[in-house]
Each structure stands twice: as structure tokens, then as C-alpha cells.
Amino acid sequence: MPLNLAELEAQLQTLSHDDNALKIIQNFALKLGKTNQRQRVFNEKGAIVGEPIIYQDMLLRGLIAPEEDPFILLQGDIISTDTAYFLGERITGMKFAVATSTCDLIPKRRQYATLLRVQPIKKDDPNAKQVLGELLKFSSTQRMYLPPLPNDLPDVIGNALVFDGIVQVRLEDLLMATRFASLSLVGWRIFGSLVRTIMARAGESEVRMRKSV
């Protein structure tokens, strides 16, 4: 237990702004081999996405206690809604990933929720091979690879979950969205690792500057 602010900072430094999780993901992807081998692993059924996780199913299986808040959506769920806004403009006809934590998706707990855009990668896109190669190396924190999703068109060979740009939606509208998929446990871990790296990543010079204040 830290006894002062200095000790508190020392204990938090490897937890709040650490990027080791991202390095673990990148090393794992590297060991899988070429792009098509990586894609095969991440495209396996239930590997990083699966069917939507339903509250009643989880309750019946004893995986959630009756006294816990019932959920409609989970963080990372792939959904569609025509009520979301990006830079003040309404977006229609697009899939999104739910970025808000599950505990904040309970009805009336928050007014707004945060979404991330999901962009399809199409077979006839001249840059598809390059994009897939980059995504499946996890070398960039701008996007995360997702396999083809339910309701995707036949020419979609993968998806990019885009972290560059936040989409907003009223929580009450979001809870009426169409759910396509939920992230698996490892998919959720990857998602969480990327989100944390983007939102709270420490550079050595920034540490020095803040320490001097």
C-alpha cells in the first residue's frame, strides 16, 4: 500500500501507461508467420469474435449472478445504428464497435456512449493486401483487425476497427442498436490493450517533463 504520492506513482507506472501488452500481441502475430497464416488464425470461428453474448443465456448458465445488473450490450460488441454522430454529422449504413465499458452501458447510467467505426476491407480493393498485412502485424495502433462479420457483403475479406476518431451516440439510442457479434475473451483483451495504449501511452521525455514540474 503506497504511503505517499511518490510511492503511488511508482506503483502505477507499470500499470497505467505500460505498453507491454501491445508488444506481446505483436510478438505473437509475428510468430504466426505470413499474412495468410495470421488471418487464418484470427478468422477461426470464435477466435476473436463470436455470436452476441446474451444476458439471459449467461444467467441460465450461471455465468452471471442474478443480483448483477442485466446487460443489453457489452464493450467491444459489433453493432449498427443510424443514430450515431461523427464530427457533428450523422453516420448511417456502418458497423461500429462499442468502446464504452460494459458497466457504463447499463440503462440510465450514462447519457452518452462512445463508438468506433468498423470499415470493411473488400477483395477488389487494390490496397487490400497491404492493409491486411499491416493489420495482422498489429504494428499500428490506428486500427485493429476483425474477420468478416455477420451481414457483411460476400466481397468483404476482413474489417478494420478504426481507433482514429470517436463516434458519439445517446445511450438510450445505442441500446436499441442491432448486435452482430461480441468479442471473445482474447479479442476483448486485444481491444482493451490497444485502447489503453492509444489513450495512455508514456514516452520517456514526457515522464521527465512531468517529473520536473
Automatic annotation (TrEMBL):
It comes from the Bacteria. This is Uncharacterized protein. It comes from Iningainema tapete BLCC-T55.
